[in-house]
């Protein structure tokens, strides 16, 4: 692909006294793409983000943002990047407008421009009506939206979004996705860290799956899902998934691997038509109340399971 | 360094503090509370002492009708002696007459009902009237050294003065009745002078000079007002330095701040600036409140150039303590811990450095420490200039040492800041 590289990461290693948070990570992010970073807790997503934001020094390796080295030209990098961390970065006792004006000042925006841009961004994240309310009174979703508006104050070409929807209810999450899609449409390059496979799948052009400080797979969501193989997924939705049920269904699954939650079991097969009735029968025999049984395509979660043998969340 | 970023950080910090009830308590309510208490409890000059004195006349001549000057006359004078104070006239003697019952008077003295007893011995009045030596005995209650000393002094002073007046009157009478024509010219004057020498072999005059500015309430209140300003520099300055980095780290905003294109200096200077703004406000609160209570505070920088240096002194005090606070932040894990530690260190210093407690109340080794503690020097200079209206001579000598101390304290603070910042990211 002859596309322009916005962010390049080479053999990045980060060690916090004793713990290896990154064990040699390499990838390129192209201009204008949404690059998903999918991984469970402790995978090293935040560490990677902080290095790219220019606030954390890597132990070894190299990273560049828009051609600037994140260590040697840290200030240039920070001026170009919009950083939206996991935590609320607004000062709770101040109102949304005061927070925007403060961050605008940090980026050296003159007052009048700061005011104009703050208004514009608060409008964009639909917080203009409550701009004079102390942030303390905001809901979780509103705080996240303010975080996003703050990250955009310097009109950054590259956006680093660290778990922008963690802890939000499904509606607020969909809302956030809508903003991210809007930002992509404006041509910004976005690095999106998440541990929601659905989020990575839906928003990303490409996804890097991370685990224990390594990138274990990197491709478009479609290609990744295809890598699970020619397998189909049968999802049995029950009132309560008992151990007996999991055992029975695991016997029907390819390699014996299943993915299960409180009220569902996913099993994998090359021959869904033959296995589906058997699965229903096994479920009934295990004494579980069936809510639904369906055949579906693999998800990124299935990819992670196949690669690590563990669940994502 | 970016001026916009520094100002943004300072402005944000000032706004946040304005909304922090705890911070406002320390900046505004605490000094008002402390000043009110000290104005009510301590900042009052000692009231003049009234001596309770019993009078006994063993003098059998006291009621002779034709005498010019009797012991009774003295008692009447005693009853009319006053001292002037800001609150008005106060009686010096509280006189109780015992007739000729010496035993009774002495019993009361022993029982603590009187401070002193004056016994006019026999023929006092007639001797006094005819130019002879009139004798009296004075008993002073012992036990409490302070009261004893005061009582002695007051009575001695009274009778000395009385004696002087009597001597003066006698010499005058003699002068008028002098048989001038029987002596060579000029002889009379010589004899009069010689008699004066007899009456007053040593002629001293004592005048009490109270330092004008310490006289009474206003001066004492001024003293405490500046003391409180010093306490604010100490306590709030330490807290500002101690929480500077840790607070942002606790709030999870520190990384986000440093993800903007700013450097460590911008954060340090912005935060220091905001701290100085609040220290300035707190100083104004102290001084304004003191003035409202009638404290004596001078401020006329155009006439007294030392007054123009007052803001400089306050600034140095603030920077010094902020630097010390930054050093404290090295050992603090959280912002609560940091401000607790700042209070724990500042509180004893408030007493031990002679900023809040007068230095003369301190034991000697501590006084040595207080004398070279740079903030104490600053507070003393402020007091000299603002309460006693001293000139540059009160400020210039302490400038080299205090400037040096400011540079060293704040400089060490900067080093500590860099360490804490690196650890916190
Ligand atoms: N400041 C630190 N000191 C020591 N270890 C750290 C520090 N920050 C992170 N780690 C460790 O580094 C590893 C990666 O952490 P990181 O926060 O980057 O993961 P993450 O993918 O962002 O996780 P999450 O989904 O929970 O946010 C973890 O094992 C974590 O415990
Ligand atoms: Mg994280």
Characterise the protein shown here.
By secondary structure, chain A is α/β, with parallel strands linked by helices. Chain A has two domains: 5-223, Rossmann fold, CATH 3.40.50.300; 230-297, 2-Layer Sandwich (Alpha-Beta Plaits). Chain A is built from eleven helices and 14 strands. In chain A, helix 3 packs across helix 4 (111-124) and helix 9 (243-252) packs antiparallel against helix 10 (272-285). Chain A is globular. The model of chain A has no long low-confidence stretch (mean pLDDT 91). Chain B is α/β, with parallel strands linked by helices and 425 residues long. Chain B has two domains: 3-43 and 212-424, no CATH class; 51-199, abc type-2 transporter like fold. Chain B is built from 16 helices and six strands. In chain B, helix 1 (3-18) crosses helix 10 (264-292). Bound molecules: adenosine-5'-triphosphate (ATP) and magnesium ion. Magnesium ion is lined by residues 45-46, 86, 162-163 of chain A.
Largest interface: A-B, 31 and 25 residues
Query: Looking at this structure, what is the CATH superfamily of the largest domain in chain A?
Result: P-loop containing nucleotide triphosphate hydrolases
Radius of gyration of chain B equals 33 Å
The radius of gyration of chain A is 22 Å
List all distinct small molecules, including ions and cofactors, that are bound in this structure.
adenosine-5'-triphosphate, magnesium ion
Largest β-sheet summary of chain A? 6 strands, mixed
- The CATH architecture of the largest domain in chain A can be named as 3-Layer(aba) Sandwich
Helix content of chain A: 25-40%
Largest sheet of chain B: 4 strands, mixed
Percent strand of chain A equals 25-35%
């Amino acid at each position: 692909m002859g596309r322009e590289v916005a962010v390049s990461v080479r053999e990045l290693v980060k060690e916090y006294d004793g713990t290896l948070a990154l064990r040699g990570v390499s990838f390129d992010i192209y201009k204008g793409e949404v690059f998903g970073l999918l991984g469970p807790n402790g995978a090293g997503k935040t560490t990677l983000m902080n290095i790219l934001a220019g606030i954390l020094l890597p132990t070894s390796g190299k990273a560049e943002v828009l051609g600037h080295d994140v260590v040697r030209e840290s200030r240039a990098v920070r001026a170009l990047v919009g950083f939206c961390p996991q935590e609320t970065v607004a000062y709770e006792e101040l109102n949304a407008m005061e927070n925007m004006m403060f961050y605008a000042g940090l980026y050296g925006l003159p007052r009048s421009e700061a005011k104009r841009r703050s208004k514009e961004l608060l409008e964009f994240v639909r917080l203009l009506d409550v701009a004079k309310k102390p942030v303390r009174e905001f809901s979780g979703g509103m705080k996240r939206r303010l975080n996003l508006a703050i990250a955009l104050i310097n009109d950054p070409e590259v956006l680093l979004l660290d778990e922008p929807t963690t802890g939000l209810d499904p509606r607020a999450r969909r809302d956030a996705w809508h903003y991210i899609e809007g930002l992509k449409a404006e041509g910004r390059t976005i690095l999106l860290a998440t541990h929601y496979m659905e989020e990575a799948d839906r928003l990303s052009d490409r996804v890097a799956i991370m685990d224990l400080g390594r990138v274990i797979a990197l491709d478009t969501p479609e290609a990744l899902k295809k890598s699970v193989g020619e397998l189909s997924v049968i999802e049995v939705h029950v009132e309560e998934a008992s151990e007996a049920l999991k055992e029975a269904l695991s016997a029907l699954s390819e390699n014996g691997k299943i993915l299960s939650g409180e009220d569902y079991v996913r099993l994998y097969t090359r021959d869904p038509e033959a296995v589906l009735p058997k699965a229903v029968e096994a479920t009934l025999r295990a004494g579980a109340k069936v809510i639904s049984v369906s055949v579906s395509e693999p998800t990124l979660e299935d990819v992670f399971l196949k690669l690590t043998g563990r669940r994502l969340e | 360094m970016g001026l916009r970023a520094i100002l943004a950080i300072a402005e944000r910090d000032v706004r946040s503090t304005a909304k922090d009830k705890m911070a406002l308590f320390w900046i505004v309510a605490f000094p008002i509370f402390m000043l009110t208490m000290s104005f009510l409890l301590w900042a009052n000059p000692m009231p003049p002492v009234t001596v309770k004195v019993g009078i006994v006349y063993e003098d059998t001549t006291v009621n002779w009708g034709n005498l010019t000057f009797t012991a009774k006359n003295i008692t009447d004078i005693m009853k009319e002696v006053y001292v002037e104070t800001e609150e008005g006239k106060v009686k010096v003697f509280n006189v109780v007459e015992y007739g000729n019952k010496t035993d009774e008077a002495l019993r009361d003295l022993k029982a603590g009902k009187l401070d002193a007893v004056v016994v006019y011995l026999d023929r006092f009045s007639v001797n006094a009237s005819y130019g002879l030596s009139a004798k009296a005995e004075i008993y002073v209650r012992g036990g409490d050294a302070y009261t004893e000393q005061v009582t002695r002094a007051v009575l001695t002073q009274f009778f000395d003065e009385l004696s002087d007046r009597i001597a003066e009157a006698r010499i005058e009478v003699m002068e008028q009745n002098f048989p001038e024509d029987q002596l060579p010219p000029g002889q009379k004057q010589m004899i009069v002078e010689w008699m004066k020498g007899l009456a007053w072999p040593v002629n001293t005059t004592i005048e009490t000079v109270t330092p004008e500015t310490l006289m009474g309430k206003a001066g004492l209140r001024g003293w405490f007002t500046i003391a409180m300003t010093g306490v604010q520099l100490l306590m709030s300055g330490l807290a500002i330095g101690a929480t500077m980095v840790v607070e942002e780290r606790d709030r999870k905003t520190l990384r986000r701040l440093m993800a903007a294109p700013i450097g460590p200096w911008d954060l340090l200077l912005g935060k220091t600036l905001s701290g100085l703004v609040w220290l300035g406000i707190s100083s104004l609160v102290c001084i304004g409140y003191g003035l409202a209570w009638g404290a004596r505070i001078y401020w006329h920088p155009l006439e007294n150039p030392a007054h123009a240096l007052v803001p400089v002194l306050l600034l140095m005090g603030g920077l010094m303590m902020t630097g010390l606070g930054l050093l404290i932040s090295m050992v603090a894990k959280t912002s609560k811990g940091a401000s607790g530690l700042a209070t724990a260190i500042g509180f004893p210093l408030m007493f031990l450095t002679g900023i809040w407690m007068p230095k003369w109340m301190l034991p000697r080794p501590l006084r040595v420490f207080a004398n070279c503690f740079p903030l104490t020097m600053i507070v003393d200079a402020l007091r000299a200039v603002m309460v006693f209206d001293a000139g540059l001579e009160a400020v210039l000598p302490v400038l080299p040492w205090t400037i040096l101390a400011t540079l060293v304290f704040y400089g060490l603070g900067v080093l500590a800041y860099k360490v804490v910042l690196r650890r916190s990211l």
